Amino acid sequence: MKRVSAAIAATIAAAASSVGAHHSFAVFFDPNRVVSISGVVTDFRFVNPHGEIGLIVKNKAGAAETWRVETNAPVILRRRGWSPSSLKAGDTVTIEGWPSRDGKHYIRLLKAARGDGSIIGIPFEQGAQQ
Which residue among 2, 13, 21, 112 is least crowded, i.e. fewest CB within 10 A of its CB? Predict the structure, then answer.
């Protein structure tokens, strides 16, 4: 009985930690707005549960701001034509996406384009927050 209780407790603890790592789109991002930012990639993390792109973006006053772009999980990105080498530090990109609700420099990826305008992978549909 003690082993069963320990197994149940371990399962609950594992489930709780994975829930904390994954979050709801609607809690963090505004599905009613789409914004566009352009900047220079500082890093691209092709990791679970969500990939992440770091950017340096110049604001309207010309000051540099650090932005984070949340992507989908690598398995979904791969289906949409992305790979770990799709972006590298120093690349110039334009990102369209849903902005954070709290005004932080945080955006959820809808579409990405290189400095020459070529689209990276297959863009997400605007109505589908994946």
Answer: 2
Give the angle 104-80-37 at the CA atoms, nearest 5°: 30
Percent of the chain with pLDDT over 90: 72
Helix or strand (DSSP H, E) at 77 = helix 74-79
Cα 72 to Cα 94: distance, rounded to the nearest angstrom: 17
Q: Which residue in this structure is represented by tokens 């149940």?
A: 8
- pTM of the full predicted structure? 0.78
The first and second tokens of residue 55, run together, are 């950017």
Q: What's phi and psi for 22, nearest 5 deg?
A: -110, 140
Q: What are phi and psi of 10, to 5 degrees?
A: -65, -40
